[in-house]
Amino acid sequence: LELLWADEFQSETLDRSKWNVLNEWTGSVCRGNELGQLHCNLDHPRNLQLRDGCLAIAATRETSYSAAIDMKYSAAMITTAENWTYGRFEIRAALPKGKMLRTAVYLVPEKEEEHWPRNGQIDILTNVQKPKLGNGAHYTGNYHGSGLDFVTGEANLQDFHTYAVQWNQTLIQWFFNETNRGLDFNIDRKLD
């Protein structure tokens, strides 16, 4: 496979030519309220920090803004400025540990329709503070995929691991540390 895009986070600030940062806090509205989240995604240095070649996305307790929109926490959500259909999508990450944290890395369409997940979504990983990883393919109002309780064995998810999805016209495959997790999603078979 040919490498088309990468970011090793070697600069002092996030490269805005490569990344879009969601800022949900607009006046007195936070999209997180609509989604039932306890946080609002902000474009703020306390939520996005570059340290030692790593991007840290941090959840923080809010004090000055919470009264206006009733959100007690903030976090961050970033998307690439580039878009691709098909390929291998890989992230090396150490997952956070903490009460109520839900880490999610996924592929979403450039333009989303009003009702999720009509345009589709492929979860590279989700984690809810257990030694398990979730994955899936979402489309046309349905959730499809297997392995929501993929157990990582003895792996400590707070250590760095490589998470990947390989996607082509007929198949989606999930990988953990270069090993196929055995959770293949045959697109032709599922869309019939």
Automatic annotation (TrEMBL):
Instruction: Check the record and name the Gene3D superfamilies matching this protein.
Output: 2.60.120.200
- Give the GO molecular function terms: hydrolase activity, hydrolyzing O-glycosyl compounds
The name this protein goes by in its record: GH16 domain-containing protein
In the record, biological process GO terms are: carbohydrate metabolic process
Would you say which domain of life the source belongs to?
A: Eukaryota
Q: By its UniProt entry, which Pfam families does this protein fall under?
A: Glyco_hydro_16
Report the InterPro entries cross-referenced here: Beta-glucanase-like (IPR000757), ConA-like_dom_sf (IPR013320), Glycosyl_Hydrlase_16 (IPR050546)
Naturally occurring in which organism (per UniProt): Oppiella nova
Its family?
A: Belongs to the glycosyl hydrolase 16 family.
Q: Domain (GH16): give its ranges.
A: 3-192
